[in-house]
């Protein structure tokens, strides 16, 4: 399998679109980080800086009716599913116009109409949930697929185990991504697990697993495609470990002094945007001019989003009381 | 027992059979309803409530799960969000502790946080008096009494068992259905032939009385009724309020009863401290203080795990004599 | 901050530093004491409470764990039974839901069932007012209020924080130590130089008053004290009882206060229904009924998850004005 | 590695002692089953019938100061640690002379003085606990080892995952046995996991694993010895899958119709007692006469145990209130 060759099968438009989402993600998250440093954001800021290709890659491989259950470094996936930069910033600012109407913050965005299961802080909690969504599709004989993601740290939780095991036993149409960015907060991989590759975990479930370069959007996309195809064909779940590196602190208040600077320097060279640009250039699909244009476009979109978010109203206090229970009219009888 | 979807004529069923009928009729009525749990398939469940169901509805609507409560409760949440109506069985209510996180953090909060509708039911066979010891006799309702977003019901009769389970399945929220193991085969009743539900959120006065209100639920309803018969002989007229729904609390029915009698006893099998009786007592002391004509007494299990050996468990469980003594004390107050 | 084992002279410390000192001094005093948790080693914990500890005490007494709350709480139980004195840190109290089963089924019941002594402490940084949203602001004490075999403490001052943590570490039972995040850096006090403990099971009257008793704990103690100052100006003399220990309940101190004032307000940040205020109210309504000269009022968060956006969270949290209004109402009763 | 040859290294006395414990286990459990059928035992009866060699094998390989955390089919291990047949029957009968003093039933026996961590119904809950006991030994630099066991079903639980992962990361002196008896209650292995050999699970943790014939006491013993030696040498944990078959129902009330009778017939031929007798005969260590003598001896011991248990007093009701909390005098200060 030569990634470099297979990449020819990906449509130019698809690659350019992924590139656009890489840039949009980076620009949006950088903007949010800047807002955070200005003290304009309450609560934590978790970014996918340096890891954007994972969410962009897997979300690009999905069909409209498919479902994602992203984790906290998957901004690209939210955007691809149609959550706008404005909504994202509104969410960070606690505005009423965000997917949670201010009830929840940062990356805890969910919207079933756009196929997004809302993230839960408790890591790995959404893996059984993703499995259950896939189960619904299987029971109803639909050809829809669920893709979910977890960090390397998240794979240590019991819910990871229970979810993957159940998905494998029932051959459910779900793909488990793992963003292995080598740290869980300050905890390095070797204190998290006694294996070098997280993909080893898949063997415990009799589930096929593979490792991809998480900084290569095309590689992630193709791996996602293969796994999604398997899932859709009723052949069951796949585990995909994306090797990458967390380039910022765990959240923006963390200076991450515990990460050796050589490691960061090394990975800086493998930046997913850089890699994407090299690829697009090599394939002759785009050049510096295009890259600059995309850069300007996403910048405008993010600024427009910021304006939208800033002009959006905050919720009113008593709205805190709304929505604890669903009402009958929210469901078909 | 294999049930048909709609019983043809009035017939006597046990509490256990009533549960079975409710499941069967709802599965026949609504193909979104499906069951998950340990050993519920060919075996029919530890208590044989789903015996014959897998033959009738197939392997994908009566699903044996791996031994992983958190995993399959999480899966139910995911399936529910995709429009299914899962009903999961805890083999014993005690094991619900393993799924606590999924229930309180995911199921309970999803609607509030981002509007996702999670219509699912967790059946939890609970309660003592069955020589089960500390891990097969628990009353875990108190744990969930405190997680906004959940509904809790606990029927005391075959009629309520059937009607509340149907209501729970049709409810757009996560509902925990506490079915009392002690009552399974000890109660029988003739049920209506036509479809009915017992609405969630409505308590019922199971015995009208003038002097003292006993507010209770589950197996203890029958203890209260027994006490009422004894007390009637000495001229003390007990009113027995069966909560049926634990959350949301039917304050109207409770307050109405206590406004009439001015005397209240909380009775439950659960441990005393932090039990549901505490909340009802607090509500009365807060909102009905002026109508109270004596202390609010509580009869409950002491604050210990449920002991195994017969003399210990008998000592542990509330007794008719306790109710009689408390009622006498209040009547004389 | 790196502490020495015994501070040499009177010094002012924050609530957070008080916790840190208690840990440090207990580790120096008793080599059975060791720490486990996520990112508590080189990083010093999410709140930097154990900064410098690993350097001082080594990797095996300050142990970074994999991301698995159930696993490391279970491990603490095992180590405790072998004679160690583990102190585990939840990164946020909210994640204690993942370890619920180990705490309630294993830690709480082992002594009752077979006499095993389980001396361990779980530190749980809890509470809102920190823009944390539904998963970083919870008050989970209510969940554990109902599991016989556990002790629960919740200090409101640096003095109590240090003394209660030392008492918890020396206690032969599993103790959950709820430390309020909002107080971490907001409170300072000069602490004694000599070793001291605050005994578990003893409430403290933080302000002596004549007219109305406010029974509370944690961050709300300060709300009550603020309200007391305001009310003093209008001649209403508030007594503020700080529970400090939630289980076992110090009925004597509570009853003594209410016998004096005849009026009681329960105040907590936790959701109202099923909160600890319900139990105290029920105890009063049961055992102190005759001394009550008015309804028992409860001030608590409404029954919703903790919302993220500032106006929502502000609405959600109890306010000084609520206490003032309730006290006025009772004083005029 | 030829088991048949290596067996020569096991001392004759050790093999004979294991044989004795196989017989004692079988006879004791058969007696308990008979009592159950006579209605003299409350609660469930879980036996190790046909699987006795596992517990006997691993417990025989331990030193006095080592610790076991057995599961519900490990009667032989309890006996080898010194819990007497009389105490076992007393436990089943809820008598005060059993290790739990009647607080808990059947195989929930724990006694730290004899190195036995009490079993918890919630499957796999004791695996993190066992890991923690091993952690205590590691921290203190003791050369003690912990052996624990779980069923195939138990490996699906999150706590299994979290325990094995932590043990592997920290190279703790703990050995994880798995009794793969091909069913978890009624659930066959293929609905429990998508792998054929449970030992595959070990790979996820970077933990060495091996498969042994669970019906061959010598094979189990030798595997245990190897793993225990590794653990004691600081080389970390091992996972050992014992292939076997559950020959009775899940508990005595389960007729296990779901198990194909051919399977049972096939495994009947591999009965561990039969196998042991063949081995002893082949080695010339024992003959029919010895086997008969042992049979008579264990029968007498079991009958004496029954007498002890029957003559033991039941606990008195109020003892239910004792022991919720440990007192200071139970621990060293
Ligand atoms: C159950 C649980 N425990 C602890 C935390 C606190 N926490 C948030 S993110 C994080 C580290 C996550 O690491 P990883 O899964 O590798 O994801 P990454 O952030 O590296 O992408 C921790 C410990 C949490 N969110 N959930
Ligand atoms: C967490 C939990 N869920 C459910 C049960 C009920 N239960 C008791 S034993 C059992 C099957 C256990 O199977 P396995 O682990 O293979 O052990 P075996 O009995 O076959 O030896 C079940 C489901 C339990 N004890 N704990
Ligand atoms: Mg990571
Ligand atoms: Mg099994």
CATH superfamily membership of the largest domain in chain B: Thiamin diphosphate (ThDP)-binding fold, Pyr/PP domains
Tell me which CATH architecture of the largest domain in chain B applies here.
3-Layer(aba) Sandwich
Roughly how many Å apart are the termini of chain B?
Answer: 51 Å
If helices are DSSP runs of H or I spanning 4 or more residues, what is the number of helices of chain B? 12
Question: Distance between termini of chain A?
Answer: 50 Å
Overall 3D shape of chain A = globular
Structural class determined from secondary elements of chain A: alpha/beta
CATH superfamily of chain A, called what?
Answer: Thiamin diphosphate (ThDP)-binding fold, Pyr/PP domains
Could you name the ranges of chain A where pLDDT drops below 50 across 5 or more consecutive residues?
Answer: none
CATH topology of chain A: Rossmann fold
Q: Class of chain A in CATH?
A: Alpha Beta
What proportion strand of chain B? 15-25%
Radius of gyration over C-alpha positions of chain A, nearest whole angstrom: 19 Å
Helical percentage of chain A: 40-55%
List SSEs of chain A in N-to-C order: HHHEHHHEHEEEHHEHEHHH
Largest interface: B-C, 48 and 48 residues
Account of the 3D structure:
The complex is a heterotetramer, with two copies of chain A (333 residues) and two copies of chain B (333 residues). By secondary structure, chain A is an alpha/beta fold. Chain A has one domain (7-309): Thiamin diphosphate (ThDP)-binding fold, Pyr/PP domains (Rossmann fold, 3-Layer(aba) Sandwich), CATH 3.40.50.970. Chain A has 13 helices and seven strands. Chain A has helices spanning 3-6, 12-37, 52-60, 75-80, 85-92, 126-140, 158-169, 189-192, 200-203, 217-232, 261-268, 272-283, 288-311, and strands at 67-69, 146-151, 174-180, 183-184, 187-188, 209-213, 238-243. A five-stranded parallel sheet of chain A has the order 1-2-3-7-6, with helices on both faces. In chain A, helix 2 crosses helix 3 (52-60) and helix 3 packs parallel to helix 10 (217-232). The longest helix of chain A has 26 residues, at 12-37. The radius of gyration of chain A is 19 Å and the shape is globular. The N and C termini of chain A lie far apart (50 Å). Chain B folds into two domains: 12-190, Thiamin diphosphate (ThDP)-binding fold, Pyr/PP domains (Rossmann fold), CATH 3.40.50.970; 204-331, Rossmann fold, CATH 3.40.50. Chain B has helices at 15-29, 53-57, 69-81, 100-107, 110-114, 141-144, 158-170, 220-233, 251-261, 276-287, 310-316, 320-331; strands at 11-14, 33-37, 62-64, 85-89, 120-126, 151-153, 174-180, 188-191, 204-207, 212-216, 238-242, 245-247, 264-271, 297-301. In chain B, strands 3-2-4-5-7-6-12 form a seven-stranded mixed sheet, with helices on both faces. In chain B, strand 13, helix 10 and strand 14 form a beta-alpha-beta unit. The longest helix of chain B is centred in the N-terminal third of the chain and has 15 residues, at 15-29. The model of chain B has no long low-confidence stretch (mean pLDDT 96). Chains in contact: A-B, A-C, A-D, B-C, B-D, C-D. Chains B and D meet through helix 11 of B and loops of D. One magnesium ion is lined by residues 151-153, 181, 183-184 of chain D.
